What does this fold into?
Amino acid sequence: MLKTMYKLSLKAISLLSLFILLSPALADDHKPELTVYTYDSFAADWGPGPQIKSGFEQTCDCVLTFVGLDSSLGILGRIRLEGSNSKADVILGLDTSQSDIARQTGLLAPHGLTNLSMRLDLPDAAGTWDDQHFVPFDWGFFAFIYDETKLLDVPASMADLIAADQDMRIVIQDPRTSTPGFGLMLWLKTLYGDQAASQWQALSPKIVTVTKGWSEAYGLFLDGEADMVLSYTTSPAYHRVAESQTQYQYANFSEGHYMQIEVAAMLASTDQPELAQSFLDFLLSDATQDVIPTTNWMYPATKQIALPEGFEINNKPSGLLLADDVVARNQENWLKEWVMALSQ
Amino acid sequence: MANHSYIYHYAHGFRFLPLSGLVIVGALCGGFVLALTALLQAAAPLDAPQSFYELLTSDARIGYALQSALFQAALSTIGSVIVAVPLSVVMARRYHWFGMTFLRLMTGLAFVIPTTVAASGLLAVWGRQGVINSILMAISDMTPLPLLELPSFFGLKAVVLAHIFFNAPLMIRIFLPRILSVPENHWRLARMTGMTPRDQFRYIEWPAIKAMIIPMMVLVFLFCFSSFSLVLMLGGGPAVTTLEVEIYAAIRIAYNFHLAVLLTMMQIAVAVIMLLIMLCHPLMRQTMPQAVTSIKPSSIHILSSRSKLLKILDIICVLFLFSLLILPILALFFKGLTGDLFIVLAEPVFWQALQNSLTIALTTACCVSFLAMMLAETRYQLGLINSPTRWQIVARLLLESSVMITLVIPSIVMGTTMFILLRSYADIFAIAPYLVLTANILMGLPVSYRMLSGKWVLARQQDQHLRLAYGMNRRTSLRFLIMPVMGRDIGLIFGMVAAMSMGDLGVIALFSSSDFKTLPWLLYEQAGRYRTDEASATAVLLMGVTIMVFILGSLTGRLLSRAPSMAATHVISHHKAG
It folds into this structure.
């Protein structure tokens, strides 16, 4: 019995292993290759990745490869695991709340670009950009999105939202797995400090669910499972520009909106430091910044970029942002506090 | 089963005892140890010398997560049994009712539907905009009744409901054939003595399924205990959690591998405790010998009571199963069948992902089917002798526990470990398909073994006599004696595992790159943009392919069992003679 089964299985396995075809790396041998780790939607066909790739390759005589990982947390986890053996030359898509943690790994190299602060156009809350490792390439405000045909009583501030009726249903993301979720945690922390836990408890009856990522939450909102969803102030712009739908709006909170600044950096272990540096530089060129708004649905990071139609912000909210080292020092405790506040 | 001495002699004919399965078991056990040590070694050294005990007591979250997971898993398991046992009885009793064939097919399917897809199906039924709520709203609009609305779907109840959605059908899939294979003369006797349905349950149906109750409960308990995606999607927040979720957080966010190892060991401990409960439970000791046959159950006339009340109750039961099982799937289909279906079908990336997924799924299914058969064969041979030696008992325990433990090793731990172990030897991106394959095999093995081993042991016991009586060699006996009886089960496992790995995102998230996309990864990617319609279309396609793969498995099973069944003829003639 066993023998027969062995023979059969050997036959089957040898046949089957023929089925698995490995796609060989398509890199052109003669040209240097620059590998960029990013999150999946940046590298996807509809993301900014392909356009940036073709733009950069025209200038550099090299091959640019985007590797799309499951999330921006995935990028950080991946380079930590790979250490100095990483295939990546550049990481792209962390935000400033993770930047100090990434810097502490010692795996990053200074970008060496000068005059960054002259070229950038970030909200005041970001201060003067003097980060030696990270180059910002886009930014956004976190905000709650609603459908104006369905939600009539829109909260005008975070305090209003926390004090709103039990009927209000919101869906948010988990700060442990998602950057908007983490942003909301920092948002409440900035506004309420030590009182944040009790504010979360007051908010919790209105939270329909906490999802793992942005997409699940936004999907639930579009399906009508919630009145408001945590997303970005640019989300209504997507609906206006890409779908010509005007009923989606963001709730403008009087306390200000927490910001996300997405950044890129080169790894110390890269064998292409010049190429990596010129790529970081290219991120701030008009060629890249022009495609960011309508592919990544974020605001461009540099001056002189005219926002596409539909992106105009009325009453531009004021930004809130905590220093990255403060976040790095406290994030573990703050996450614990958040988890326990919502577990009661 | 007479002639035990005869088997005894035969068994001693094997000089080398069941090596194949034990090699697999050894590999599994070695793998666990290697995995956990590798993780510990890769962990950043702790700031202060901190023992595991200190780690355990320092964080209130660990205790909370354990408690929450145990409670949720217990509820889900009990719920699944409460649904599965009566429904198995009803589905056996009403075997010929209209639509039952479809319902039986669906019970096999539910377990393998991708979790994320199923969760949105459940939402489409039970959510705020779901079918049930829409009906309730329509009723409250038309009548002066106060406003009816379902409470928010998310939270513990949603997780438990989703687990019942997955696991109750799995149980039915195991219980139903057992009831159907009760010999006809038992039913005849029941009719003659005028047994009530209650007596029938007590004396016929319950004895037929009771041997499988505890193993299935343990299996389902461990599934629910180590649940991940469903808890994150439907749990409503950190209040409902599992150790698996905390392990994910420990590795991905806190980058605390010590904590991850500690939590994984806790999961293993729970699995071992469950195993001990299973082995010591009184229900497990009194298993009565059963005949397994390949007779189609349609030839069996199960006593159907004339009682109107019973009929109505049965209809209610079937409708309940329909709303639990079929409604979410239907709702999902209607949601996804939009114009975007053609957009997705027109994209070459879809076809590439489909090809990758199919390759992985079919290879996984082949490997798992063979491994499960080998393990079942080993299990049979270890149980062959009436007075097993001590090492045989140990080997048996090792076999059961290593398979069980595989179930609770989180895929994030598996993936991270593979990564750490292989990073200096190979290009992770290039070998990604093999890693995904390995992870999928490990994922499919426990449930396949559980579903196969019981019947395999019985079939082999029967086969032993016949083989010697007919003087068959091993190959012929595999073809004529084992396959006719086991073919459908092997096909079922094949289909289930293929479908499971078709829909699993799991470990791919760690390794995937643009070079190697699977369908669930494509779905994940599509969901990451604003166009949710496209994602629902892909979800429907993914579900469609999953169903097709599953049906392919069933067809293979039929093909395997097509050889003229001497075992079955034997059993029939035996019964007639008796």
User: Anything to note?
Assistant: Confidence is low (pLDDT under 50) at residues 1-17, 567-578 of chain B. Chain B is about 75% helix and 0% strand. Residues 21-41+76-577 of chain B form a domain with the MetI-like fold fold (CATH 1.10.3720.10). Residues 428-470 of chain B form the longest helix (43 residues).
